[in-house]
Amino acid sequence: MRGFGVKLKGLGGCGGHWARPGAPLGCPEPPPPPVVAVPAPGGPEPLPPLLGPCVRPSSCPLCLFWPPSGPPRSPAKVTMSTQQLLLCLSLWAACVGAKPTEKKERVHHEAQLSDKVHDDAQSFDYDHDAFLGADEAKTFDQLTPEESKERLGVIVDKIDTDKDGLVTEGELRAWIKKAQKKYVYESVERQWQEFDLNQDGFISWDEYRNVTYGTYLDDPDPDDGFNYKQMMMRDERRFKKADRDGDLTATKEEFTAFLHPEEYDYMKDIVVQETMEDIDKNGDGFIDLEEYIGDMYSHDGDTDEPEWVKTEREQFVEFRDKNRDGKMDKEETKDWILPSDYDHAEAEARHLVYESDQNKDGKLTKEEIVEKYDLFVGSQATDFGEALVRHDEF
Question: What are the C-alpha distances in Å from 23 to residues 65, 176, 180, 241, 278?
Fold first, then answer.
């Protein structure tokens, strides 16, 4: 079947998205139609603001059609078959028409490193899953000990960020955290060239605004129902928060913080602020019980609530509203959506040092690490094993 050209308009989010930066976090409302097929003669036009990476691509109707990085932002026509278009529209219709029965998840938890029991006396299965990821655990078996030792030495130089010849727990923790966020960095890499219009290695606010809001800037009063002015103001606020030196120009790390604020400690206040703005319907600066429930569940005239909704009401009263004043303030909201979880990366870094620190000085030399190559080759300190195979990238 031959495809046909379409322009993409009216894209919305789903409950699983960090909606593209200007849109509400978690997209509390059902998504508007994801695609409108219109004739596409002539050249392409700039697209309206689009979605950012989805945190639940396996259950998101948009991500069943588009990859996790979201639909293409570049001003180009997208070709799809009639069957694909009908599938996408039917998924949207099901999403809008169905009454929500599952809780929307706004809480950001630290991911487990493995679902296996950690018992090194029995096997290194947990370590291999934790260090490599289950899908990459086979990498270790593909390397000879000589190759592993040689290439691990290259990795150690990268972990030792202060170049003092010693690897600390902090440096190991940072490296493991970075490896855990590999999908985040890959997402930013895919989008970087699109926004760095002048190819100077930075992304200015003007570049981001022009790429993302080009259609709105040309037509400030569109009829698609989106408040682009509010979105742009929200984006600018988050961009300035991510821009640590205040020059309105983002480095790659700052741009990563802008797109994925939940991953950075200094961005957590903006995550809380945006979440409260989404849920606080009466604008009093707090989240009361009905706003809390309303963000997760729509009654649609029914008087019977699912059990999980009743449980959430109890959770709000007993645990969320700590001062028992009937509403959540900023700190209570932060405790809810950004809980202080067990730091798995810190625990793993401590484990690596304990197992490898021969002189017990609390730091590791390259020799100490290489001596325990069988442990480190399987750890996330090796960037899921890929760095050992492609060490020239370091």
Answer: 20, 31, 26, 16, 9
